[in-house]
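For homework, think about our next protein:
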Amino acid sequence: MNKKFLLFSLLVLFLALFMWRNQQFEGLNNVDVLKTTTDVNKAVPARVSKTNTQDLTEYKELFKYSQEEISVFKNIFESSRIGQDKFNRKIKAVSLPGDSLFFAEIDDFFYRLQKSQEIKTFVILLNNIELKGKTDIVMSEYGFITPFGKIATIPVADKNLLESIDLSNRAFVGNDDLKNILPFIINYYPEAKIQAFWLKPGIDNKNIESLSKYLKNTYLEKTVILVKSPVISANNKNLASFQSEYDIFDRLNLNEIDFSENPDIKVLKKYFSDFDSSSPSLLSKVEKYTDAYKNSFFVNYYEGKSEDPKVVSILSFGDMMLGRYVRTLTDVNGLDYIFEKLLAGEPNIFSNTDFIFANLEGPIKGTGYKSGTSLIFGFHENVAPFLKKYNFNLLSIANNHALNQGISGRTRTIEVLQEQNIGWCGNPKDVDRNSVFYSEKNGVTLAFVCFNQIEAYLDLEAANTLVKELDSKVDLVIVSIHWGYEYKHTPDKNKQINPAHAFVDSGADLIIGHHPHVVQSFEVYNDKFIIYSLGNFVFDQYWSSETQEELSIGFLICKNPEVCGFKTKAYLFPLKSEKSQPRFLNLNEFTIWIEEFISYVSYSEEMKQQIRKGLIEIY
């Protein structure tokens, strides 16, 4: 009996102590914890309740950063910065990647932003694809605790908006996009406050309008809105970036961009369209893209009137020979055989580009010339509609094989290309009016001028005089030239480098070289890009691995750099040809090839880093 009585007494005492402890803990949470949060952030909502404490405590536990994650952030914050010092315009919103792959780029963005403008509030719009919460809009009610410090939210005072939203921090638990962005805000703007909204994809227009109005009335001054960049889903991320970046420039007006599956963009569009005519409009531009094997991007939205960026895109390829053994293969397998491997994944390399350009290494006439192993080329006339099918719209016919079928072969080549509305440029023996192809794209006037220096005398004085004349007439002058020594990875000073510099000095904006059958180095001279040789594109030189290593480059050239933020971007697309079928490199092949490419000449460390990313940027 004594033992039972003793156990019973202990149980009663334990329950009494437990109840007393809960009462004390509840009081502590309701006062002391919130007081501490207020002291740190000076912005905790006035409403105090047990729910508030539970949200903070539970969220702290569930929104946990591992020691490895903490170390990653600390290392990034302590690392050197890779970007420019400041943005040249006031940023109103930004579309950021949410994945940890892009922490270095996100850090660079916030570093530059901190140097550029004061910010009191970050509004974070997130896509609620998990459909958490009871309403279309879920809003953070209380501040967030992280290992890097605490950050406060601003309480909602709009009763109308409160009726249509679900106030909850709990719903944000497990949201990596928010988890990944908070440390950057706290590190660079420790006094700033945030307000996070989680938006369901099916949000109706009424709620979009209510939220937009609320944002406009509440967060107008010293506020930046953060949204997540749409993910590029593609096998070749660099190609997707090249095409998507141009596509965004092509649709500069935010209201014309279709992100129908992204409610955050919908709200952002409505928010800026609500400003009256006297308020700042929105100018969007792609500020920074990630490298070849990452899959997202940055778009900054600036305060200021939308201006025409005047961007032109050019996708350039090397030498294209469609006779000899290539002809043998296509007679058996069809012409589409050539590009089967290149089109095996997404996206389609032959799309979303103003100009697709290559050197046509031979004439098109009749049924062609089955030349075996000879150096006399002639292509079947069916190659013209084939090239048109894949959106080639400009070819150089200034090379040492252009006259392999005589003058009649050159004449017929021009005729069949024109029948397919494919542009052409070049006289293989002279500098004259046929050397030039004129065009206009996106408000930019262009002249492609094509020269040949192989098995022919090129009057460099006449060529430079022509470039100077063109420079006075058009916005952009692109020089394509057949030159140099075969199978050499380094350009020759007298045959290539000196003439290239002279062309730039005369007004050339871009120089694209052909003929050596292998890829050669590039150079940035006086802010102009010179690629000395792209190597082969479609050929039958199977006897050497180097003649089957190829390079395509996607160029974005801007004539209004203050709007674009750059002068030229060159996206590198190294290729591998197998039995005259070019294909993209896999990641391992890309890494090996890039290092080999870097070894051709001496590049600066900064340039090496750009090459490894597969993107050369000229500001």
About this structure: Residues 20-61, 248-258, 276-283, 288-295 have pLDDT under 50 and may be disordered. The chain is about 35% helix and 25% strand.
